[in-house]
Structures are given as structure tokens and as C-alpha cells.
């Protein structure tokens, strides 16, 4: 059986989840569900990044006990994932004892191997993104330095432990060069080379002396581990790496046949594509197969983020349109090349056009006709009497069935949705042009039953193909149609199936 380990970033526990977090988590969940549907054994993780300066500062500002704030926020994220139908196998919390112990163990291991040494950290630092900048990488405005997201940088000069990342510059460049499909889309690799590798990779400071909210370093308890070193290791600790309960690590990481895929947006690609592979190389572990990087959701021309205060609450859309509508919208608009601008109108349009007018409408029309003309029983096909328009529909059905696995295997879910959408437009046209109500009136029952059989079967395939995205709705539809939502049942003839009456599925808004 094929298997895969899929991960989202672990989100900072400094506030509530917003649409950006929902975007990555839904994309990863949808890919996980599609892969499962075509036969993969999946391990899927998400969770919380609970250490670092920012978390500590927010708790202080809110006058909250840090641990209590983290517990509250973890619950808020988990509630959202539950509502959105996100099925993770493991939920990371980096303050858990298991995670912290393994992080300390790995730190000691790399220290012994001399990949970690003590020095002095002089750098421009963004406390918001928890990221180092050199003067050339920083953005200069009115004599001050800012990170690429516009937060002011602070100058740091303190003792620190360093990871010898500079030693691996040539190796990582060669890795990018030799593994074209490691970073998706591949142009992001060029960006990373231009922005971070060309000017020379520096050793990475991986401890903080002035902070208490982190994993303590055993080798010197005046220091805690830098949040990114700690956070990246979640991808191993989720699987029990470094403990006795490491079966999942053996199965989903160590076994070269397992596909390892990380999802995220572009601002954290530097950590995942440069530092993370180097850390794995130091640990003599295999690298992920793919790092999938999408663009940002933009709101009013700026990246939507907590620090900008322009975030959109996913609940606003879930409450008005339902979880499935939000899942659908974010997958349909997913963009790996560019950022995408979110507007309320855009959401309404997609909902009304795709979900209400196409998917919902075609289904209620078909079910209504089967009720009216066939007493709710799907008629059989009379092969001899097929006309060209019927044959054309069968060809389109075959084509999508030929394509879908390839699209899923290449993470082209948006393209799969485009194919589905095209099919629905065609089915609507097929109904309008065939005019089944006239066929019935004229007594042309052979033609009418062929048409109903063909359109019902095709629609069942489309419902099955949509089920990893429109989970709750397709479940409801499956009960109405007595249809099993299983990809093995694609291309089936459902003749003689007894269906129930179908109420409107997506109400126009
Ligand atoms: O960076 N558009 O956590 P974070 C699209 N803890 N996606 C967005 C987005 C936007 N406007 N805003 C956030 C961290 N995201 C670290 C990660 S991983 C070992 C540690 C999504 O809470 C996107 O996936 O800032 C982005 O990479 C992630 O949230 C950053 O979440």
C-alpha cells in the first residue's frame, strides 16, 4: 500500500486562527483525503508552535498565564479544524514533554557531533517573525531597518549557540539543482537562492539568552532553544522520533517508500527549504519529497496577518455559508504562483455560481426528473439507441475518469475542480438541449431513459470526485441517492438504484 506523511506548519499560539491558517490546513487536508481516496495510507499532522518571544510577549500584554493562554488557543484552533472537517492523525503542541525531551536530545546529539558551537550572535532580528536579517536582506526606511513583512528589526548582540549551516551551503545548492521537484512551484527555489544563498549562508543562531519561554538547553541552562529549531523538529517528534514509541517514524519517515510532503506559504520557505534539510542531513535522515508553497491571501493589498490587524475570521463564512463552502472556495482559488485577493463579493460569486447554480441545481433537476418520470428508480440504458449527444457526454465522463488520478498525484486539485466545473456546465446544457419534458410528452421513453441513466451516472462520479472537498454535503447527498462515496465505485452504472426525493442542496444567497 502506498503511504504518505502530510504536514501543515504549526501555527503560532499568539492569537486566533484566521483565513490564512484555514487556507493551508484545508489544502493539506484535501490532498490527504484525495490521496486516501486513491488508496494511500496517510499520516496527517497540524498543531501549535508554542514557544518564543512573541508568544511570551502576547501573554504578558494580555496579563495571562502563558500556559493557560496556550491551552485556550490550542482549543480554539482544534474547534475550528473540527468544524472544517480536518482529519489530522496528530495535533502537535511544542510545549508537550515528549516534544521538548526529543528536541533537547537532538540538540545534545548535534552538539556532540560539533554541528553546534557557542559564539556571539550579532544580527538584526524580527521579534515578530522570529527571523534573522543581514543589513542587505533588510528593508531600509528612514534610517530604520524592517523585515519583509514590515516589522521593525532590533539589533542583537549576545552569546548564543550556533548551528553550522554555512558548512552545508554547497550541498543545499546542489540538492536544489539535482531535485527539481523538491520545491513546488520550482521558481521558489530560485527566489531562495537569490535572496539567501547567493550572499553566503551564515551559521544560524539557535539559542536565546534573554528569553525564558523555550526549551532549556542542557549544555547551558542560561539559554533556551530558538523557536524555529524547536518548531521544525515537530515534523519528527509527531512520529515519535527519538522515543521508544517510534513505529510511525519508522513507517512514515524512515521508509523511503513513504512520501513526505510539507505545506506552507512562502514567508516560511527559507526555514523549510534551507535550514530544515540541513538539520535532517546533520541527523543523517532522509529529506521530505516535496515542499509545497502557496501564495498569500491578501486583504486590502496587504498580507493578511495578525500583526497587521487585517485578518478575516473563517467563522464569519462558515456561519453564513457552511464549512463545505469555505473548503470549496479556498481550494478553488488556491494559488501556488501568486497571492490572491480575498473579497466578500468574490466568495458570494463562487458560492452562487459553482455551488448553488451548478452542483446543487443539476442534482435537484436530475433527482426531480427521476422522481417524475421513473418513480425514483434510475432507469437502465438501452445501448442500441444512443444518439450523438449522449455519446459525447459518455466521452467527457471517460476523460475525467482518465485524468483524475494524475491530477491528484501532481497536487493539481484546483485543475480537477476546473474539470468538474466544466462537466457541470455541460450537464446543465445537456438537460436544456435534450428537453426531457418534451421527450416525456412525446412518449420517446427510450431516449428519455438513456438520457436519465447517462446523466445520473455521470453526476454520481462528480459527487464522488467532490467528496474530499464537499464532505458534509456529499455525505448528505449520498444518503439521498443511496450512493456509496467510494472512488472504487467511479464509472459504475447505477441503473435500478432507488433514490429519495432531493431537497435543494445549496440555497442561493
Ligand atoms: O510561521 N495567506 O506560524 P504562523 C496564506 N509558527 N497563508 C497564510 C497567511 C496568509 N495571509 N497567513 C498565515 C509560523 N498563513 C510558524 C511556523 S512551522 C515549523 C512553524 C499560513 O502562525 C501559512 O501556512 O505565522 C503560513 O506559512 C502559516 O500560516 C504561518 O503561520
Structure report:
- With 509 residues, the chain is of the alpha/beta class.
- 49% of the residues lie in helices and 16% in strands.
- The chain is built from 18 helices and 17 strands.
- The strands form five sheets. The protein has a six-stranded parallel β-sheet, sandwiched between helices. Strands 5-4-8-10 form a four-stranded antiparallel β-sheet.
- A hairpin with a 2-residue loop joins strand 6 and strand 7.
- Helix 14 runs antiparallel to helix 15 and helix 14 packs parallel to helix 17.
- The protein starts with a strand and ends in a 28-residue tail after the last helix.
- The model has no long low-confidence stretch (mean pLDDT 95).
- It binds ligand ME8.
- The site of ligand ME8 has 20 residues, from strand 1, helix 1, helix 7 and strand 13.
